[in-house]
Every structure is written in structure tokens, then in C-alpha cells.
Amino acid sequence: MLLGSALYSSPPVGSIPVELRSHDGTYYLLRGGEPFWIKGAGGSDHLATLASIGGNSIRTWGEDPGIILDKAHALGLTVCVGLWIEHERHGFDYDDNEAWQIQLSRHKAMIDAYKDHPALLMWGIGNEVEINYTNHRVWDFIQEVAAYARAVDPNHPVMTVTAHLDPEVVAQIKKRAPAIQILGVNAYGGLGAIAELAAKYWKGPYVIAEWGPNGQWEVDKTTWGAELEPTSTHNAFLRALRHNVISGDRSRSLGGYAFKWGYKQEVTPTWYGVFTRSGAATESVEILAYAWQGRYPDQRAPRIHSLTLNSMSPQSNIVLQAGEHATAAFKMFDISGPVARVHWEVMVESPERLLGGDYESRPDTVPTMFSNSGATSIDFVAPIQPGPYRLYLYVYGPNDRTVATGNIPFLVLNELEPPDSQ
């Protein structure tokens, strides 16, 4: 394996031990003998920004982590290195011994290669493998990987990650994978229930391995099924509340990883990422900065108060006729970061609704006639082709370093086509 150390004048040398300790029912991590609370983010982009706002760890999912570990170490960050355990729903057969051994060899090689890297915090063995599974032998496989990691690398704990916290799934982990020391839980709108569930069913230490805004399964929809995405401003508010929830349990929680530190297309291009594809930072970045180091960045992001289409809110099931002239408008909060420019865009509604964060392609942008652009409004012509669309709003700060985002779904019909035929 090719490591990334050659990119740096002083390659990192020597493992920094990470210990999982408990005292009077309270669990905690010691890294190099010092208490370590995870102030983390899921993703490997914008690492310098993460370090500058007080973050101390990142989480990966399965890519070779060599260069990432080196970059993290140079910035004083740690890495929860993900070992991607194949999913049954993707076609992997845990009754196929040859496939089992090939996958096991790959993970052993990864552990051997990076177990002594000083940026390594822990091993994340598997992510949401229980989604749509039927073969519980996947936990036997995770046990084999975890047992190997603990045998050859006693300096770093091992974790597996589930979607929310299902008592039946936890029972399988406790029964079949006793080498797992930490339960990782991906939780969004249901985050508030995790501490109680963990105390009742897991009883050991846990990490909120992904957390963020409400998921697309947790929001209202239009009558044609388009999920209503909150603005980046509302999502930042939710992140502030949920960070307080994570910090509120210091008996079993070891911290968490905000999702997604970077850009991600899932339902829309703006739902989960705290950065846009171009790298502009949303308000969520400054919310994390305040949570982790008690102060906001010097440059604050713009903040959207509301977004309307033909004076209607996103909840209004907006229907336009093909080629109809329409007007969109937005309002900003009185307390907001400076606005340098505004960008509008129409995209087709993504037809992909995949599971577990599987890769989704970015929707197509629709060439659109925009006119009468004002500071907070714009006129445009609805697409000619019938179907579901979204109008996207991007409000940028100076030099496009910060941004506020929002979108509003609408349905285009032919003139004589009734809305309920969709």
C-alpha cells in the first residue's frame, strides 16, 4: 500500500495510544493519557477549516486512509478509520466463504498498514450493514475483523455503526460481535432518544457517528412526493440544538461526527453538506465553531428567513403550467452575514431515493429564462416539459466564502392536465 507520508517533510512516526476507560458507570477516552471528547465531522474535505474551528476528529467510511491520516496529523486532527463491510443489499453473500476470506484479508491488510499511525483514533468496522439484511452472519464477520484489530492493535478501540438504535440489532451485536467496544449510532431527527435507548439496551459507550438536520424520511412532502428541505439557516438551528443533546450525556456518549463535512448529493445537492460543491461554507460551520470553541468565525454566513414562489410557501403544493411566468422571492433575517450576490437555479427533481447514503447523481440543471432580478426576487419562466422540479436559491457572502441555501419544489403540468393525475 502507498502511504501519503511522502507529501510531508516530517512523516508521522509512532502510535499515540487511545484507551477506552470507565469509572463509576462513566465512559471516556484517553488519547496519549489525556481526556479526549470527540468533536468530529464525517468527511475528509476542508480539514484546515475543521481544525481552525475547534474540531478534533474526522470519520471515513472505507477509502484507503493513508493520505487522509497524514493530512489530519499535520493539522492536529484524529481519524476514525472506516473499514467498509460489504452489505447484503448490495449483493454480498455472507455464506460465500471465498468472498468472506477475500474481504477479511483486505481489512486485515488495512489494519496492519495503519495501526501505528499517530492520527488514528479508532477503527469504525462497518456502517449500517443491517439495512434490508436477512443474514445475521454479517455480525460474525464484524466480530472476526474486530477481534483481529484488538489482537494486533491494542492501542485503538473498535466500533461498529448502525442506523439509529434498534434493540434487536444491538442484541445481535452483543451476541455475535462481543469484541466491539463502542456502538456507533447514526441519528438525525431521532437523536434525542439515543441516550435513553443506549442506557437501556447497549449499556456501554457510544458515539453519534452521524448527526445533522432531519433526514428526508423525517420531513413533510408535497402531494406528488417531493420532500420539503429546510433552509440552511433552519438546518444550522437544528445542528445547534442537537449538539447540545450530544453533549448532554457524558456518562456513555464519547462525542459525535457532524454529517456531512463537505458536499453530498442526497435528494438534493444542499440537504446534508455543510459546504456547497464549490466549497462555500453554510451557517452550520459557524454553529459548530461556536459549539466547539465558544466563538463564531469572523465572516458570518447569510441567513434566509423565508422563500416563496408566487407568494406561496414550500408547503403549498405549488403547481405551475408549462411555460408560465412565475415570481420567486426571499427574505433575510435582520441579523445576517453580508450578502454579495444571489444565484437562482432550476433543477429537475431527482428521481433517486436510495438507502443508507448510497451514491446518487446530481440532478440536471434546466436552462431557465430569468428576468427582472431584484435584490430579493426574480421572475422566471416555468419549464415546458411537465414534471417535478425545484427552484434553488444561493445567497453568497463576500468572495463566495459563505452561503445560505434554500429550495422550493414545484410541479409543472400541461395546460389541460389535472394536478391529481400525477
Describe the fold and architecture:
With 422 residues, this protein is an alpha/beta fold. It has two domains: 5-293, TIM Barrel (Alpha-Beta Barrel), CATH 3.20.20.80; 304-421, Immunoglobulin-like, CATH 2.60.40. The protein is 23% helix and 27% strand. It has eight helices and 19 strands. An eight-stranded parallel β-barrel has the order 4-5-6-7-8-9-10-11, surrounded by five helices. Helix 3 packs parallel to helix 4 and helix 7 runs parallel beside helix 8 (283-293). The termini are far apart. Mean pLDDT is 94; it is low at 1-11.
What string gives the helices and strands in order?
Answer: EEEEHEHEHEHEHEHEHEHEEEEEEEE
User: Could you estimate the helical fraction of the residues in percent?
Assistant: 10-25%
Kindly provide the radius of gyration, computed on alpha-carbon positions and rounded to a whole number of angstroms.
23 Å
CATH fold type of the largest domain? TIM Barrel
| Overall average pLDDT | 94
Shape: globular
Strand order of the largest sheet: 4-5-6-7-8-9-10-11
The number of E-state strands comes to 19
Give the helix tally: 8
Instruction: Name the poorly predicted regions.
Output: 1-11
